[in-house]
Amino acid sequence: xxxxxxxxxxxxxxxxxxxxxxxxxxxxxxxxxxxxxxxxxxxxxxxxxxxxxxxxxxxxxxxxxxxxxxxxxxxxxxxxxxxxxxxxxxxxxxxxxxxxxxxxxxxxxxxxxxxxxxxxxxxxxxxxxxxxxxxxxxxxxxx
Length: 143
Fold this sequence. Notes:
Blueprint: H1 6-24, H2 27-44, H3 49-76, H4 85-88, E1 92-97, E2 105-108, E3 111-117, E4 129-136, E5 139-142
Parallel strand pairs: 3-5
Antiparallel strand pairs: 1-2, 1-4, 2-3, 4-5
Helix pairs in contact: 1-2, 2-3
């Protein structure tokens, strides 16, 4: 064991940290593996054990802090493009069958939808333009 250089041990450690990275999909293991590779480079350049460990810790912590802050920034942002049901809210539709508080039919985004009026006392006649305010299941709520 004494005849194996320290940089080899760091590379073995990097490979060992790569296994749980692949198995668990936890990126922190990958960052520790990169820190181990950096420590292997330091060991290959002749740095002492204390400096090797320091390089491992500094690189690993720096990567974790940078990647976590970037990940937090992207998880807070909502997608700019509305898709699915969210894309239909606020759109205009044309009444195909009389719509009241109990039901009716509209043409929304080229498709026929069941619909009902938001205000149960209100009715919308055929050909009238309505605004979709919400979608409940397969029913558009119109105003």
